Amino acid sequence: MKKLVLIIIITSFFASCNTRMMTKEEAYSDLYNEKPLSIIVLPPINRSVNVEAKEIFYSSLNVPFTQQGYYVLPPLLTMEILKEESAYDSELFLNNSMQKVGDLFGADAVLFTIIHSWSKSTILSTINVRIEYILKSTKTDQVLFNRIGDITFNPSTNSGSVLLNIASNMIQTAFTKEISVARSCNNYTIIDIPKGKYHNDFGTDKLEYAGEKEFRATVNY
Q1: 180 near 221, Cβ under 8 Å?
Q2: Most CB within 10 Å of its CB: which of 16, 19, 74, 192?
Q3: If we measure between CA atoms, which residue out of 200, 178, 167 comes closest to residue 128?
Q4: With 0-12 CB in 10 A as exposed, 13-18 as middle and 19+ as buried, what is 208?
Q5: Does position 158 have pLDDT exceeding 60, yes or no?
Q6: Where do runs of H (alpha helix) occur along the chain?
Q7: What residue ranges define each of the domains in the chain, with the CATH number in brackets?
Q8: Among the ranges given (15-19, 103-107, 185-189), the one the predictor scored with the smallest mean pLDDT
């Protein structure tokens, strides 16, 4: 499968000419103040009709945060501990204090993800995901990072024949690896988080402009 390529600049749902762009220091002031080092990634909350989305998406979350300079507790180990504690349902924790979770795992922050939709249309040859990312402090329960990505994936096949393109796109969509879709959504969303302590650019990105909290993007695959 060809490397996913962003073809439409990320745009806000609510952007307007009068909207003042915020710096990352303004948008993520609590994160800069707390400087979390370690993150525990809880299993996604799946509100889509795709029953497999939860397992697929969970396995894709640790790498992008690690690349941004954070230590992420191993997801498989986290899952086993949660199952032992009968706490596999992340929705039970979403609106509660994070301090007990922090004490249990020794983490500075907890990542919740909500899969609002995850749909694949073989006829239209598209895949659409809408996923929310919520990073909460285990010390203060403050939301340190919150973004929603609404990303549509289109096939890039072009044989010169309309009928052949449609047939090829349908086949390509049907066999697209779901994990690649998950990774791309992560990359476009998490790239906005301020760099963690284990990144070379830690503490140098405060004056960079923050992305919109809710954004759309279209990607070729």
Answers
A1: yes
A2: 192
A3: 178
A4: middle
A5: no
A6: 24-27, 29-34, 53-58, 62-67, 75-84, 99-105, 162-174, 178-190
A7: 5-199 (3.40.50.10610)
A8: 15-19
Does 99 score more than 70 pLDDT?
A: yes
Q: Distance between CA atoms of 212 and 61, rounded to whole angstroms?
A: 20
Between 76 and 168, the higher pLDDT residue: 76
CA pair distance 90, 85, nearest whole angstrom: 12
- Token pair in block for residue 106: 């020794």
Look at the block and give the residue holding tokens 């402009």.
Answer: 209
Q: And the tokens for 33? A: 């103040």
Q: What is the pLDDT of residue 16?
A: 42
Specify the pLDDT at position 93: 84
**Other beta carbons less than 10 A from residue 116's beta carbon:** 14
Identity (one letter) of the amino acid at 81? Answer: I
Chain centroid offset of residue 129 CA: 10
**Nearest Cα to 171, choosing from 155, 153, 151?**
155
Pick from 6, 90, 9, 20: which is nearest to 54 by CA?
90
Strand partners, 135: 111, 145
Note the pLDDT of residue 50.
87
Is pLDDT of 2 > 50? no
Alpha carbon distance, N-terminus to C-terminus of the chain: 7
- Pull the structure tokens for residue 56: 């697929």
- The span from the CA of 82 to the CA of 85, in Å, is 5
Whether residue 196 is predicted with pLDDT greater than 70 in this model: the reply is yes
Enter the pTM of the model.
Answer: 0.81
